[in-house]
Amino acid sequence: MMHAVVVEGMPPWAPAAALLGPGPWRETAPGRFEAMLSTPAAAALGAALRGQGLGGRLPSVEMAPPVPRAAVRAARLADARARRDTTPGFTRPGVRLDDEGRYSWTPEALALDLARAWPPREVWDLGCGAGGNAIGFARAGHRVVAVERDAGRLADARHNARVYGVAASIRFVEADAVAYVTEHLARAPDPVLLFVDPPWGVAWNRTRTTLADLPLLAAVLAARNGRALLAKVPPSFDPASVPVAGLTSRAVLGLAPGDARRVKFVVLEAPAG
Fold this sequence. Notes:
The protein is built from nine helices and eleven strands. It has helices at residues 16-20, 39-49, 69-82, 99-104, 108-116, 132-139, 151-163, 177-184, 215-223, and strands at residues 2-8, 26-29, 32-38, 60-64, 122-126, 143-148, 170-174, 192-196, 228-233, 248-253, 263-270. The protein has a seven-stranded mixed sheet, sandwiched between helices. A four-stranded antiparallel sheet has the order 2-3-1-4, with helices on one face. The termini are far apart.
């Protein structure tokens, strides 16, 4: 059986080809895609997009005729099983993580890709947690100032940096991130990149997250004083909630079979100036 499938609400920064999967897709209007799909392909698409808010809304998916319930159940089960094979958080033994770090750590390969997108410079990782992103920046040749107010998590970050052999490239500071920026930014080298991965929590809103839900990001934006900023936010984050000129958004997908069709996080970039 074939189904006429219409997907609406894909934000312009979303990699539609990856998220929609194989098919003769046509973009018939901004954010609107149409294709004729077989029952297995349509069911797999529905399972892949189910509950995945993008840019502040859930994409709508319409299928005519509707996919049989048995095919829907089978696709959801297959999708759930596939998600067990996801991009690893770290690859070297001996890394230390607390409970928060286990679910918030940026996958090692993605952190490294994120850091390599910028020419080497000084990077301030504001709220560095267990150090995943700070390590990625250091491995990519940046000089890093890793700021974290939780002494236990900062100790984990130091330990993890030693595991990855980049401790000499990172200066660890036990301090409140916003207070540190407010006090020291005027003396920071130019260019400096402010990086923030604000805590989302396990129960972050999968449909729509806004700047008000991420107070650390809001505070750093207010204190950045025109410096370049890079932020890692949930897929459901609404960029329209950030009143910054020139802000761009970029989706980052996983690298493993289980998350290659899912947005792991969105990167916000605010230029200097």
